[in-house]
Amino acid sequence: MTLYEKLTAEIEEAVRRGVFAVGERVPSVRQASAQHGVSIKTVLHAYALLESRGVLETRPQSGYFVRELPSAHAISPAASQLPPVASTVDVSRLVLSTLRSIRSQDATPLGSPYPDPSLFPWRQINQLANATARRHSSWNLMDDLPPGNPELIRQIARRYAENGVPVDPDEIVITVGATEAINLSLQAVAKPGDTVAVESPTYYAMLHAIERLGMRAIEVPTHPAEGIDIDALATIIREHGIAACMVMPNFQNPLGFVMSDANKERLVGLLAAHEIPVIENDVYQELYYGEARPSALKNFDKKGLVLHCASFSKSLTASYRIGWAMPGRYRREVEKLKFLNTLTTPSVPQVAVADYLRRGGYDRHLRHVRKMYRQQARLMIAMVKRFFPAGTQTSTPMGGYVLWVQLPDNVDSMLLYQVALARGITIGPGTMFSSRDAFRHFIRLNYSYPWSAQTEAALKTLGELVAGMERGKNRDYEHGR
């Protein structure tokens, strides 16, 4: 192997492993020459070869950058097409059992729904919480009552304003995480027995809320890159009737897409024409991979029908579970339900988070997290493509930290979950993301944790298990062979 071929292979491997992310500038010719101890001519030859392979691209007077490669293994739109049927929901037991399995200290947490806590600035926030507790040795219960801490509400409203979303602070109600915000919002707009439209696949927290309140879900076909099928939703409204709609337009879990502004505006307009409220779960709003935070449905809300829910649990700290709702015209009802359901949200965590936001540093923290997730998403996709059998397809996450994987049709993800767990690997079986036992040959993987030899070995093992099941060995696995 010549020097330039060796250098080409090293840089290509670094790109594949996510050391250099898509759109990121690689070292200049002079820097690479000094770093690798080779001549400038050798670097130029290597970069030219990488450019011809589509790995790098040249930008005039700027240098060489990692090029976005076309994904030939992306989930096809047909993978999410299901005929709409309203159904009761019973997924909580399955989800609870899978979440319990993730608590094993030795398991590789590919099935975890939670981000890696080591990336959070928990020491700073804990110090602020301790300082707050020392300043106020006894709290007045009145300080904890809804809508929540005034300074935290101000900081949240300010952050929205800085990102182009005009928000009235008086609309914000602080909750115990986004889960409570979603539950309160749904309780405010629908009653037991009502039908609620959801994406297919959908994040199981949405299904939990529907199940808890005795409602029915109707799943709407969802495009893996464009989001909920608005034409299909219009047909469902006309033929079935719905009380509400629940969606994740940004970095949807598990698909990871971002709806275009045009589709967001069209969705809000369709629902507004029928006076149907929409609950927007925007919990991953800060974890974008692009240059700016995407718009929310709230940007296009003219009638107060968008109940926007979010939290700091996925971007700042999961332990304090600070979330909020901006419920539009349903604000008074949500505040009342908050008081009736949980009475208060503890004050110390609210004040600690507000202090952290006021002091600055949140954006710097987020830039680091986004860069890590973007690199690890690319690496996870590459490893799935490398270790899993031909025909395996993946989503293309635009933010967040989860990957949706479509396995060969005859692979049962629940059986894969059980066999993988016996080998110390957790995954999210696809059936958790539907009320109708759909997506049995899909899994969700978490890539927020730092890449390690253990992670790579776990993916290799998963790939081998999937390959074995594809060859018809399901019965052997079922009998423990």
TrEMBL record:
SMART domains: HTH_GNTR. Pfam families: Aminotran_1_2 (PF00155), GntR (PF00392). Transmembrane segments: none annotated. Coiled coil: none annotated. The keyword Nucleotide-binding does not apply. Residues 1-69 form the HTH gntR-type domain. One of its GO terms (molecular function) is transaminase activity. Keywords: Aminotransferase, DNA-binding, Pyridoxal phosphate, Transcription, Transcription regulation, Transferase. PANTHER family: HTH-TYPE TRANSCRIPTIONAL REGULATORY PROTEIN GABR, TRANSCRIPTIONAL REGULATORY PROTEIN. In the C-terminal section; belongs to the class-I pyridoxal-phosphate-dependent aminotransferase family. This is 2-aminoadipate aminotransferase. It comes from Caballeronia mineralivorans PML1(12). The lineage of its organism: Bacteria, Pseudomonadati, Pseudomonadota, Betaproteobacteria, Burkholderiales.
